[in-house]
Design goal:
Layout: E1 7-13, H1 21-32, E2 36-42, H2 48-57, E3 61-66, H3 71-75, E4 80-81, H4 83-88, E5 93-96, E6 102-105, H5 108-118, E7 127-131, H6 135-146, E8 151-155, H7 159-172, E9 177-179, E10 190-193, H8 209-212, E11 220-223, H9 232-239, E12 243-245, H10 247-262
Parallel strand pairs: 1-2, 1-3, 4-6, 7-8, 7-10, 8-9, 10-11, 11-12
Antiparallel strand pairs: 3-5, 5-6
Helix pairs in contact: 5-6, 5-10
The protein binds nicotinamide-adenine-dinucleotide (NAD).
Amino acid sequence: MIRGTTQLVAIIGSPIAQVKSPENFNAWFDAAGADLAMVPMDVRAGELDACLALLRGWQNLRGCVVTVPYKQAFATRVDALSRRAAALGAVNVVRREADGRLVADMVDGLGFLGAAQAHGFAPAGARAVVVGAGGVGSAIAYALCEAGVGSLALLDVDAGRQARLAAVLRNGFPEVDLQLECASLAGVDLLVNATPVGMGDTGALPLDPALLQTLGATAHVADVVTSPVVTPLLELARTRGCTVQTGPEMAKAQLGHLGVAMGVMPESHA
Ligand code: NAD
């Protein structure tokens, strides 16, 4: 029940009907007995500046989740950015301070990492391969470097995107052995598909099948694609004896990080 006393959080994007966060947050608020609610906001691109002004003045708003296509646009409009959000030029969560200032972070990568660690993946010194240097791939690659991976192979068919992210990572994490190609997956501890390849029923794989035949059984293989839950890559990884992590697992693991960042969940949920 939304009452006059209820504090709000929002999820902002366009379109918005497909997002699952309102169900997930409102179920959590309900179970916790918290007088909080999440509302979806489908905002027209031309109204973003007005939207930000409204958020600053909206006194019973605690914060918002930012989704496609506004993750980059918010980064240039909020009042303060975390170091990683500034480096990536993208945000996915905003906390509204009591004085109306909007402080933003990018926690997509933390959710991913939490889900991987729950499977036993230990990032310190690990050898990781991330396919996809777009929005989600950037956040995952950054979080892996923050968590201390030893080496990272960053692959993308778009060489410009790959080079831009590589520059950010080399600047922030000179200690990580960063490669822009991968000849073999032997000895790799983590393989991540952070591209849309495998979505729907195309059966497509994000890497050459011959390269995937070099994948060892000790690798943890993760996909960001949420539908199907078990993608062709994950099916293949299972046949090779790897542990696998689905896109919905990553999405679920985001909840606590987003809630803590907005100040509506206890720190222990991050
Ligand atoms: P994006 O368009 O920003 O990035 C995708 C990148 O993949 C691009 O740089 C593109 O060049 C690259 N790419 C495409 N095909 C490739 C291939 N065969 N080999 C190498 N690189 C390739 O998209 P995004 O916002 O990063 O989203 C990627 C996927 O992640 C989408 O399917 C989205 O639905 C999913 N997603 C999942 C979660 C989750 O919690 N599980 C959250 C957000 C997004």
